[in-house]
Design goal:
By secondary structure, the protein is α/β, with parallel strands linked by helices. Helix content is 31%, strand content 17%.
Length: 420
């Protein structure tokens, strides 16, 4: 695809978005709503009374509102070209086929997707897909997985002066626990978020430097775009079940996972893990990180309009329960840790409670738990919740809950029953 064609597509998308946005009030002119706004009430006050009204009017409106007032515009879809970089058909002791593929959807840019698929399967398999913090080479021992050359987060194994090195190879296998998913019959696909847009407030790299300057987007929106392009590729693989794709991510990448799922119904389940403020915790919450704090520390995650709510979150015309509602009737799991108060685990449960009426309105079950479940106990309703001992991290225990939740909703055989 030519650069001119890609830019034209982005330009048209931005133009259409700007026409709709022109009718939206300035943040300062929005009414104050101290409580969580009713997701079944339109911006103009009209009550949603039918499923058709929800699908044809309220869902599109919520998508527009989240992009206009918070996340910025997601870059437009464009054709994905795939180049296989490396394949190992006997990965994990012969249990899986591992592939690293370079995906390009914008001229002069590509990102590397690591895909592992179980070899022993009766048919197509479900697949977890999402971004990672440390790059693919840290998740496996395979010496042929490419070490990225761009900016890296500090304080990760093998990173020196924000550059990755061979020393980091295979050092964080426990974070994504790929073999555990393979053993449970699932594929996993992941990419380094910095390949899409380096997580820096001072410099824009990745696709951001290639997008039209008039397109008001953000890092989280671009990372979600990366998830969507990974899905484009996964759907070309005969081994992947197109109806069993699971968006997953941790922390800021959990924010990415829930946004990606809200904006793309090809993702059958959303699992935003410890996503906190700006993701799964209420913006109006009084516990943990605040909108003001997150805007000041990470200004590139959200757009200019969202900054105007830093001192008055009551004017936000939605809250994060409406982002969950955009996923309805698909399953969503919020997972947390007891000591991670910064992510406001109790507030996240309240977000699920507030999203529940939309699921019920659409004729499906919602949050089955009446209160926060006991530590280590998964509540696996359409709106699921899980909290464990420990701190802010993604671990084997978390993946056990992710896999159990996916099993439950994909109706696979399970060895033990799950609440909800």
């Amino acid at each position: 695809m030519s650069c001119v064609r890609v830019l034209l597509m982005f330009g048209l998308f931005a133009l259409c978005g700007s026409r709709g946005a022109a009718a939206l009030p300035e943040p300062k002119d929005l009414p104050s709503k101290p409580e969580l706004p009713d997701p079944l009430v339109m911006l103009d006050g009209t009550k949603v009374t039918t499923k058709e009204q929800w699908n044809e009017k309220r869902r599109p409106e919520l998508k527009q509102l989240f992009q206009h007032y918070m996340y910025g515009t997601l870059p437009a879809k464009s054709e994905v070209k795939a180049t296989i970089l490396h394949t190992d058909t006997k990965a994990f002791g012969g249990k899986a086929t591992l592939t690293e593929v370079a995906l390009s959807a914008i001229d002069k840019h590509s990102f590397r997707l690591l895909v592992v698929v179980p070899n022993e399967r009766k048919g197509k398999v479900g697949c977890f897909v999402g971004p990672n913090f440390s790059a693919n080479h840290t998740l496996v021992d395979d010496p042929k997985i490419v070490i990225p050359e761009g900016w890296m987060y500090p304080n990760y194994p093998g990173v020196k002066n924000n550059k990755a090195s061979e020393e980091g190879r295979g050092k964080l296998k426990e974070v994504w626990n790929l073999e555990q998913s393979i053993d449970r019959g699932y594929a996993v696909a992941t990419f380094y978020n910095g390949d899409i847009d380096p997580d820096r407030a001072d410099v824009r790299g990745g696709i951001r430097s290639l997008l039209p300057p008039t397109l008001e987007t953000t890092s989280i929106a671009c990372w979600a775009w990366g998830v969507h392009r990974a899905v484009d590729y996964l759907l070309t693989l005969p081994s992947i079940d197109e109806k069993k794709l699971v968006a997953v991510g941790h922390s800021r990448l959990g924010k990415t996972a829930i946004l990606a799922a809200a904006m793309d119904e090809r993702l059958a389940i959303a699992i935003p893990h410890q996503a906190g403020c700006g993701g799964t915790a209420p913006s109006r919450g009084k516990v943990g990180e605040s909108v003001k704090q997150i805007n000041e520390r990470f200004p590139h995650w959200f757009n200019a309009n969202f900054k105007q709510f830093s001192n008055d979150t009551a004017k936000i015309p939605f809250d994060q329960h409406s982002l969950v509602a955009l996923c309805a009737p698909r399953p969503v799991l919020f997972s947390n840790a007891k000591e991670d108060s910064w992510a406001n685990p109790d507030g996240q449960f309240e977000v699920l409670q507030a999203a529940d009426p939309v699921y019920r309105f659409l004729g499906v079950s919602g949050l089955e738990a009446k209160e926060v479940p006991p530590l280590g106990k998964l509540s696996a309703g359409k709106l699921g919740y899980f909290i464990r001992e420990g701190k802010h991290s993604m671990s084997k225990v978390d993946w056990q809950a992710f896999l159990d939740f996916a099993d439950h909703h994909f109706r696979r055989n399970r060895e033990e029953s799950i609440d909800g």
